[in-house]
Amino acid sequence: MNMDTMKMDMMMRRNNNNNKRERNNNKESSNNDSNNKLRSVDLSCMSLESLPIPSLDLATISKLDLSNNNLQNIPESLTARLLNLTVLDVHSNQLRSLPNSIGCLSKLKLLNVSANFIQFLPQTIENCRALEELNANFNKLSKLPDTIGFELINLKKLSVNSNQLVFLPSSTSHLMALKVLDARLNCLRSLPEDLENLVNLETLNVSQNFQYLDTLPYSIGLLLSLTELDVSYNNIKALPNSIGCLQKLQKLCVDGNPLASPPMEVVEQGLHVVKEYLCHKMNSSEDKSSQHKKKSWVKKFVKCGTFQGRINGGRKRPQHEGFTKLKHQSIDGLASPGGFIGALSPLRIFSPRRSFS
């Protein structure tokens, strides 16, 4: 074989290889386009009363939107085959329960079941360990699975507002990744005692539990990442002194509570004065019996670097000027609507509202 023939042969091979590569790239691109179509399936707002027999390979779907239909149930066989599902949205249907096979969705990150008639979440939901957001607002939940906090270790947002919850399971305090907890508009009698494990919690809303919620746990002062706390429209008469240790707290809503501590004149001066008042009260050694109860908590505060006072030796801290003579000041960013107007109203004197930020 002469040199020209060899060169031509090499060129032809090179062209063939390039053509093969191009065909493979086109094939991959076509497959990717096909997969992209399959990955997201939108069957929302179709007035569906039942799900049609799927013609798609369910294992290829990563997002399924069944919201705003009239579905009364989700077949067990359907969820069991959605092995790669990461988002499931079934809000605004007629669902009364979720299938037990939802525990098969090991890759699920977002589950929206809001605006249904669900009375309980299946225990198997704990197997959805990749879950980062659970929205179960506007249902008829009377309780959550007891061990939900031990298993959903990646959960960042838990929204269960507008239900019939009487309490949150104690395991809730183990949701260490949790950033937002919204449990307003329920019938909560209390909150879990050991909240200090919620080290990443930034927003806690337990407002509008009305006459049911009358106390907050002392451990609320160890939520070191907390920036927003809404306890408005409950039956709380005294805020825990530990709230004075929440260094990152920027917004505190206490509207509609019969607060006696802190008193009204402190509340009206804003969040920074309230925090100073509560911190001073916790540091004070005047109340011996109360001090005895707080010793274990104080150790925790010292460990976390949020407590600056002394409680031993009977030594009193110098009293802050702001507590001997409290002066009314205007507050920037009142938490309640029309806060400035309400503050000037004569009816304000008789109102139980306590709000500030």
Automatic annotation (TrEMBL):
Residue segments, region Disordered: 15-38
UniProt xrefs under SUPFAM superfamilies: L domain-like (SSF52058)
Low complexity compositional bias, start-end: 27-37
Keyword Ribosomal protein included in the entry's annotation: no
Any coiled-coil regions, as ranges: none
Keywords annotated in UniProt: Leucine-rich repeat, Repeat
PROSITE patterns reported for this sequence: LRR
SMART domains: LRR_BAC, LRR_TYP
A Pfam match: LRR_8
Protein name as annotated: Plant intracellular Ras-group- LRR protein 6
UniProt source species: Stylosanthes scabra
Gene (name only): PIRL6_4
